[in-house]
Amino acid sequence: MEAPDSAVLALLHDALSLCEATGGALDITAYPAVKAWGFTQEEHRVPSDSELAELAKKIDYTAVALSDWDGERHRGGAALPQGMEMDLGAVAHLAAIEGRVPFVNFFDGFRTSHEIQKIAIWDYEDLAGMVDWKAIGDFRARALNPERPVMRGSHENGDIFFQHREACNKYYDAIPGIVEEYMGKVNAKLGTNYQLFNYYGVPDADRVIIAMGSICDVAEEVIDYLNAHGEKVGLVKVRLYRPFRADKLIATIPATATTQLAKRISSTLANRR
Q: Where do runs of H (alpha helix) occur along 121-200?
């Protein structure tokens, strides 16, 4: 068997550090169980008790040993656009933990999703220092547990249902502030400048495009070219789409500018009239 290179060793070392930090709540050896439940191929099934007992013998991150590991970190440059997937992935996880709202941290497009690039891996010691561990404890306490049975999702009439829906609003209203908090912490760690909306271009632009995703990198190249030839244009990058803070967007756009919204929808249902 070919020995793994230093980048793979570094990834395994960091993954095992996280396993240890979480007390085994995250276990990188859990793949056999994930596969047995059918999550890898969307063919879900419930394994038998005997099968689960056998699988449990194969799940133990402490059994993983790294040979010839000396702590050396040979990392290539961060080739992902502005570190978006790794850095903002951390923001999404940390904000979801504290805000109690699930996040979708996405990348877009065939070019983005089908590239294989080197990335700079987060140091889990840095991440651990930013985690709200009390929120994790609260999350685990709310989990369904046969030792603490509760009834959820029972039938309710419309008046009670909508009261419950309204009661959720405070959590969604708090999300932009929580995301900004963790963006600030990531900025302090990495020297980045993530905001809910980031502006790129001349401060007195007369035209501004608003976009999110991989189009932003292409737009920056065009903006640099146009501004070098006498134009006054800019770009607003959307970092947090929902919940959407219109006031933050307006504050980011130069007062001198008109705007254009870049939109591309490939969904058949979205294009129906």
A: 124-130, 133-142, 158-167, 169-190
| pTM of structure | 0.61
| CATH code of domain 77-142+155-194 | 3.40.50.970
Q: Please identify every stretch of the chain with a pLDDT value under 50, giving residue numbers as ranges.
A: 1-4, 68-85, 267-273
Residue 221 near residue 201 (C-beta atoms within 8 A): no
CB-based contact 122:186 (threshold 8 Å): no
Tell me how many helices (H) and strands (E) the chain has. 11, 4
Q: Which two tokens stand for residue 137?
A: 């404890």
Task: Give span(s): CATH 3.40.50.920, the chain.
Answer: 197-261
Q: Which residues of the chain form CATH 3.40.50.970?
A: 77-142+155-194
Which of these, 17, 142, 126, lies nearest to 71 by C-alpha position? 17
Backbone angles phi, psi at 138, to 5 degrees: -65, -40
pLDDT tens readout for residues 100-125: 888 876 666 666 666 666 666 777 78
197-261, CATH topology level: Rossmann fold (3.40.50)
Residues 6+ apart with CB under 8 A from 61: 16, 19, 20, 24, 27, 28, 29
* Helix or strand holding residue 113 (H, E): helix 110-113
